[in-house]
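Incident log, support desk, overnight shift.

02:14 A customer reports that sequence design results differ from what the structure should imply. Their input is reproduced verbatim below. On-call engineer (initials T.W.) acknowledged and began investigating.
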């Protein structure tokens, strides 16, 4: 395997401090309150620290080995070698140190050869117990599951408690197949929140256009696609007077990329690519009248002059237009807000609008570029691994997420207190659609990137696209159900 190996030894200077912190967190709920946000509420509140209910174990200087894909932001969310003064770096360092001291472990980081984390396959298939956990791109984690290379969470990892608030319940429910769960999303990886889609708006342009308090509209539940479209149509302008509106020189009401708006819009209407039947088998649920209406409405707006879509991977034109006050709205993952930190004009963060008032919340797709955790079948001590995973996730919930949520987004990047309330709503509506994440050997590739694919189709006709691909997809889904039911 190509990559680098980094070992983290517990820093002696921190032993006393971390021991005190560990003692305070073991089997008690009497800690000082921390600021945290429940995924089931839309306001931040102060709650007492929760116990992870884990047994106290001494793992005798064991080296906990993490395989992490080769992308800096996802490496950093799992491991930081030393404090740097950066809010999130220090939070991760302190979390890892606390768990290391509590259970007497060290860390070894095995960096993969690519941004997906594909190259652990041969090691596991050879029977080599080289990694305790895999931290990979969501689609790659499902590839390992498809090949039978991961342990099942409900039956083989005894100390992971999926009822705890540090595990996302939408992921728990929707990433299982035939009652088997080989991965989940939670606060062990804080960028699972960062990978959620959000809408950003330019406050200066909003004021110039005479649009009222959009936060109030959101909080009242009235932020719908119709309202969004109304504002978008007001936002475009031919700034250089050449009678054409282009992304380099003029102003748009809404700009997006092919992996953002076209992928996100399906979920705003409560739809998913795959759902489950009573036996937890996968069901292709995409072809509904509501889906047709959603795509027709969205692409009609997107094809109008006030809108622009970038149909390749270069998002710089999108970011530049918004940063230069030439776009009223842009959508992106929350973590990409850092690309706007040099922007002079104020901006706000809000959820993507509901498709209509009938939706009970602002549903938000979580980009498949997020990290999902898997435990290789070669793991020689699943009990020990489950304890460490649970401890890292619990401490992520207690200390890392509040930093990302309350500090980094509020004071380092975002420009107002209301943005934090908006992230409450985004977090509460996170969607983990197995139909979007699963892509092994093109199992359901006709539909797992349906929005992006339609963006590239002339006419964006969902019905004809679906009809051409349905039979093939249904056959592959049947194979998948059979595989997981065995």
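02:41 Re-run completed on a clean worker. Output:
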């Amino acid at each position: 395997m190509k990559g680098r190996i980094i070992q983290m030894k517990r820093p002696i200077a921190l032993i006393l401090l971390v021991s005190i912190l560990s003692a305070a967190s073991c089997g008690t709920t009497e800690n000082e309150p921390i600021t945290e946000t429940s995924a089931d509420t839309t306001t931040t509140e102060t709650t007492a620290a929760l116990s992870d209910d884990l047994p106290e174990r001494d793992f005798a200087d064991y080296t906990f080995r993490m395989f992490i894909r080769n992308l800096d932001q996802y490496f950093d969310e799992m491991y930081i070698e030393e404090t740097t003064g950066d809010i999130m770096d220090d939070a991760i360092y302190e979390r890892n140190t606390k768990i290391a001291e509590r259970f007497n472990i060290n860390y070894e980081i095995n960096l993969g050869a690519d941004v997906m984390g594909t190259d652990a396959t041969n090691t596991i298939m050879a029977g080599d117990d080289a990694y305790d956990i895999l931290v990979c791109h969501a689609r790659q984690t499902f590839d390992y599951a498809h090949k039978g290379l991961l342990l099942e969470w409900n039956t083989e990892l005894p100390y992971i408690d999926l009822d705890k608030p540090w595990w996302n319940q939408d992921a728990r429910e929707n990433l299982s197949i035939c009652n088997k769960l080989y991965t989940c999303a939670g606060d062990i990886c804080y960028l699972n929140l960062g990978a959620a889609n959000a809408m950003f708006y330019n406050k200066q342009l909003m004021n110039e256009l005479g649009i009222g308090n959009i936060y109030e509209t959101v909080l009242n539940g009235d932020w719908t696609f119709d309202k969004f479209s109304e504002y978008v149509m007001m936002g475009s302008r031919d700034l250089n007077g050449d009678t054409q509106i282009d992304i380099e020189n003029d102003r748009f009401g809404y700009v997006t990329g092919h992996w953002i708006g076209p992928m996100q819009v399906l979920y705003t209407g409560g739809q998913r690519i795959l759902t489950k039947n009573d036996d937890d088998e996968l069901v292709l649920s995409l072809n509904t009248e509501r889906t047709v209406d959603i795509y027709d409405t969205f692409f009609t707006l997107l094809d109008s002059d006030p809108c622009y879509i970038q149909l390749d991977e270069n998002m710089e034109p999108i970011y530049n237009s918004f940063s230069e006050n030439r776009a009223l709205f842009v959508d992106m993952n929350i973590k990409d807000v850092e690309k706007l930190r040099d922007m002079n004009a104020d901006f706000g963060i809000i959820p993507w609008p509901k498709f209509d008032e009938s939706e009970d919340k602002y549903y938000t797709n979580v980009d498949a570029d997020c990290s999902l955790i898997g435990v290789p079948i070669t793991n020689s001590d699943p009990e020990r691994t489950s304890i460490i995973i649970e401890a890292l996730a619990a401490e992520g919930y207690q200390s890392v997420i509040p930093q990302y949520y309350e500090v980094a987004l509020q004071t380092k990047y975002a420009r107002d207190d209301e943005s934090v309330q908006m992230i409450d709503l985004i977090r509460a509506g996170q969607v983990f659609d197995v139909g979007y994440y699963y892509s092994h050997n093109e199992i359901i590739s006709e539909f797992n990137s349906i929005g992006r694919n339609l963006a590239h189709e002339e006419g964006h006709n969902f019905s004809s696209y679906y009809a051409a691909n349905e039979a093939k997809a249904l056959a592959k889904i049947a194979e998948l159900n059979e595989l997981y039911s065995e």
